[in-house]
Amino acid sequence: MDNGHNNVAAVGTTYSNQFYTTNFKSSYRLGDNHEQVAILKANLREYRSKTPSYLWTGTPSLENNTSTIFDSATEENLKVFQKREGLTADGIYGAGSRNAMHAVIGVSPKGWVRVFRSTSAYINYNDTSTGLSSDSKYMLDHSWVTSTTRDTLYDLGYSFYQKTNKKIEVNDCSLIDGADTPEHQTHMNGKIIDIRNAPMTTTEEKTFLEVAVAHSNVQKVIFKTNHGVSSSKIVVDTSGVHDDHFHVETYN
Ligand SMILES: [Zn+2]
């Protein structure tokens, strides 16, 4: 069981460890001894092999360093990774670093792709500091979708931006391996995207509904209201579950 991380070093919390019967730490740092540290080193070796060598001048090699000890070489390599990926270079591997590692070397056994960390069309809320802290209960990366769904998301973001000058915020999609997730009943097929409406005005919410139902790959949108938009694709849910986001399902 990869429990939502696949080939990338896993992080976890009391809650996610209970759910998946794992023993992941919420972060790994200098001096830690954990099986996931050996995976982190392999991830860093792979990342290093794919990036220009000048970035690594003076950084100790991790070749043949396969132990489970988070040593100073691991810390140095991690800092280079963090700096290049726009993270705080503190040498501590937590959910933010895991997300960035997923984005650059994560392999989905389902063949899915990761929602881009940032684009001109949308914000991946999972990669923002507020998104990361609001996900602190389980620390899972719900950023994975089919490539067609990612294209659809890009279209939705672009259309919405053209009408509102504002980016949509992407919240939970699926886990890298399609594993069951304690935070959602569905979201296991790579074809579901939650979009936050927190930054939207009522008019913008309506605009998003119009943009979404107009897209040929959008099958269904669940939201608290249809704002008068008449479409069989909209499912109104007054239970409160869909007050803070649009749940968007695609065909492919
Ligand atoms: Zn949803």
Strand order, main sheet: write it out. 2-4-5-8-6-7
What is the CATH C-level name of the domain at 111-252?
Answer: Alpha Beta
* Average pLDDT over all residues: 96
Shape: elongated
The fraction of residues assigned to DSSP E strands is 5-15%
Rg calc: 19 Å
Low-confidence stretches: none
Cα-to-Cα separation, first versus last residue: 26 Å
Give the second-level CATH assignment, the architecture of the domain at 111-252: 2-Layer Sandwich
Q: Characterize the largest beta sheet: strand count, sense, and whether it forms a barrel.
A: 6 strands, mixed
Question: What's the helix count?
Answer: 7
CATH topology of the domain at 111-252: Muramoyl-pentapeptide Carboxypeptidase, domain 2
Q: Tell me how many strands there are.
A: 8
Helix and strand content put the structural class at alpha/beta
Cofactors, ions, other ligands: zinc ion
Percent of residues in helical segments? 25-40%
The topology string of helices and strands comes to: HHHHEEHEHEEHEEE
Would you give an account of this structure?
InterPro entries: Peptidoglycan-bd-like, PGBD-like_sf, PGBDSf, Zn_M74/Hedgehog-like. Pfam families: PG_binding_1. Residues 34-101 form the Peptidoglycan binding-like domain. This is Peptidoglycan binding-like domain-containing protein. By secondary structure, the chain is α/β, with parallel strands linked by helices. It has a domain at 111-252: 2-Layer Sandwich (Muramoyl-pentapeptide Carboxypeptidase, domain 2), CATH 3.30.1380. It is built from seven helices and eight strands; from the N terminus they run ααααββαβαββαβββ. The protein has helices at 14-20, 35-49, 72-84, 95-105, 129-134, 147-164, 202-214, and strands spanning 113-114, 122-124, 144-145, 168-170, 192-196, 218-223, 234-236, 245-250. The strands form two sheets. It has a six-stranded mixed beta sheet, with helices on one face. Helix 6 (147-164) crosses helix 7 (202-214). The longest helix is centred in the middle third of the chain and has 18 residues, at 147-164. The two termini are 26 Å apart. The model has no long low-confidence stretch (mean pLDDT 96). The chain binds zinc ion.
